[in-house]
Specification:
It is a single chain. The N terminus is likely disordered. By secondary structure, the protein is an alpha+beta fold. β15, α9 and β16 form a beta-alpha-beta unit. It folds into three domains: 260 residues, 2-Layer Sandwich (BirA Bifunctional Protein, domain 2), CATH 3.30.930.10; 92 residues, Anticodon-binding domain (Rossmann fold); 71 residues, 2-Layer Sandwich (Translation Initiation Factor IF3), CATH 3.30.110. The strands form five sheets. An eleven-stranded mixed β-sheet has the order 3-7-8-14-11-10-9-22-23-21-20, with helices on both faces. The protein has a five-stranded mixed β-sheet with strand order 16-15-17-18-19, with helices on both faces. The chain has a three-stranded antiparallel β-sheet with strand order 4-6-5.
Length: 479
């Protein structure tokens, strides 16, 4: 298989191989000792920390508070909501022995926390004055994956899960849409991923939910990635766990609940949305290092260049630019350039004796061609500008890619052709049998009913029954 000089399979040859090689070569992850688990290495974890910090800030600004709930859940809790346990049954990891003996009741390692949080909400909520209850948890979850892929589908992964309880459907629906908007904003503004927000079909709903909403991104192989979901549960879990409140009228009512989550698979989404044959391409807002300074020179020259490099790095730090000096003496500048390209650093600065004499450094951007001098005096302001421009460029580039790989189709032949390389905008009858037939024939599923899609009527692309949605759906193959 063709490879470039750094040993990375080109995306055009085998996108899956490219992805698997990049996540290891860029030192984002390593394989854990249990099949399907991953170790998130410091560089990869820093990307997650930056994403996590932004999401956490937004969640708190909307009045939600963080809490923590147990990892182990009694098996009987999951069985209280029939759709929920049926949906998760194939993915459950169950503890049957502990303390040297068999347990009276098996314990499930948390696949999601609706059940245990529902149990606690039933204890904590008694009056309308306790509503809305707005909780969020940062945690790990375990879902036993048959076909694991680093950062995308692993047996254990990291996420946040919001869980809220409300007095009525209207308030719970507002919450569901608030979370959906938060995920859309984070994806576009921080990850530079031009996601499409909207609702899932009944066949794609979260187990136990009345309605599921999603943000879907297109990766650079044309496949879709579900990047965050928000669910309106109705009173399903409230009835299963007795989450009730006394209304102002004195009547006892069931709460309407929601749940919503975004996980560490977003890091995988960033890789596949922006990466190229040289490796990662990181949005500046998620880059562990936004600027890397490479001093040029050995021996006396190195001693001459390092102090000004450190002084420049300090000035950039004070300006809020995450900066790193690569002063590894045993590696050549060329190796360092390739290494930081693989790691996706937005901007690289070269600083040698000639540059110092001219009061400048040589700047290279991750997607740019060639190098340009940057005045050391104005470097902080110039680099802040360049980073902002690079963030915007990535969103524009990804949007253009998505739009150029999305086709509005009117026939089954056009549909099949479209989903081989991207997304198809098509009418659908809404029946589960038809969804299943489409998936069996093409591996494509209805990813989202776009919230901003125009109202249209037409016949199902597969079976010629009338459309059930009054607009076209996005179909695509997905991760």
């Amino acid at each position: 298989m063709a490879r470039d000089e750094r040993g990375v399979t080109p995306q055009s040859e085998d996108f899956s191989a490219w992805y698997n090689e990049v996540v290891f070569k860029a030192e984002l992850v390593d394989r854990g000792p249990v099949r399907g688990t991953m170790v998130i290495r410091p560089y990869g974890y820093r990307i997650w920390e930056l994403l996590q910090a932004d999401i956490d800030r937004r969640i708190k600004e909307t009045g939600h508070v963080n809490a923590y709930f147990p990892l182990l859940i009694p098996e009987s809790h999951l069985q209280r909501e029939a759709e929920h346990v049926e949906g998760f049954a194939p993915e459950l990891a169950v503890v049957t022995h502990a303390g040297g003996k068999e347990l009276d009741e098996p314990l499930v390692i948390r696949p999601t926390s609706e059940t245990v949080i529902g149990e606690m909400m039933a204890k904590w909520i008694s009056s309308y004055r306790d509503l809305p209850m707005l909780l969020n948890q940062w945690a790990n979850v375990v879902r036993w994956e048959l076909r694991p892929r680093m950062l995308l589908r692993t047996t254990e992964f990291l996420w946040q899960e919001g869980h809220t309880a409300h007095a009525d459907e209207a308030d719970a629906t507002r919450e569901t849409m608030l979370a959906l908007g938060l995920y859309a904003d984070v994806s576009r503004e921080i990850a530079a991923m031009p996601v499409v927000a909207g609702e899932k079909t009944a066949g794609e709903r979260f187990p136990g939910a009345r309605r599921t909403f999603t943000v879907e991104g297109m990766m650079r192989d044309g496949r879709a990635l579900q990047s965050g979901t928000s669910h309106y549960m109705g009173t399903n879990f409230a009835k299963a766990f007795g989450i009730q409140y006394t209304a102002e009228s004195g009547e006892l009512e069931y709460c309407h609940t929601t749940s919503w989550g975004m996980s560490s698979r977003m890091v995988g989404g960033v890789i596949m949305t922006h990466g190229d044959d040289k490796g990662l391409v990181l949005p500046p807002l998620l880059a562990p290092y936004q600027v890397v300074i490479v001093p040029i020179g050995r021996g006396d020259q190195a001693g001459q260049v390092l102090p000004p490099a450190r002084e420049l790095a300090e000035r950039l730090h004070r300006a809020g630019v995450r900066t790193h000096i690569d002063d590894r003496p045993h590696l050549s500048p060329g190796f360092k350039f390739n290494d930081w390209e693989m790691r996706g650093v937005p901007i690289r600065l070269e600083l040698g004796p000639r540059d110092l004499a001219g009061g400048s450094a040589l700047m290279s951007t991750r997607l740019g061609e060639g190098k340009m001098p940057v005045s050391l005096d104005s470097a902080p302001a110039r680099l802040q500008f360049e980073l902002t421009a690079f963030q915007a460029l990535l969103l524009q580039r990804a949007t253009e890619y998505r739009d150029s790989h999305t086709r509005t189709v009117g026939s089954w032949e056009e549909f099949v052709e479209a989903v081989m390389t991207g997304w198809a905008l098509a009418f659908h009858c809404g029946t589960q049998e038809c969804e299943d037939e489409i998936k069996a024939a093409t591996s494509a599923t209805p990813r989202v009913i776009p919230a901003d899609g125009p109202a249209e009527e037409g016949m199902c692309v597969r079976c010629d029954l009338p459309s059930a949605y009054g607009k076209r759906l996005i179909f695509g193959r997905a991760y």
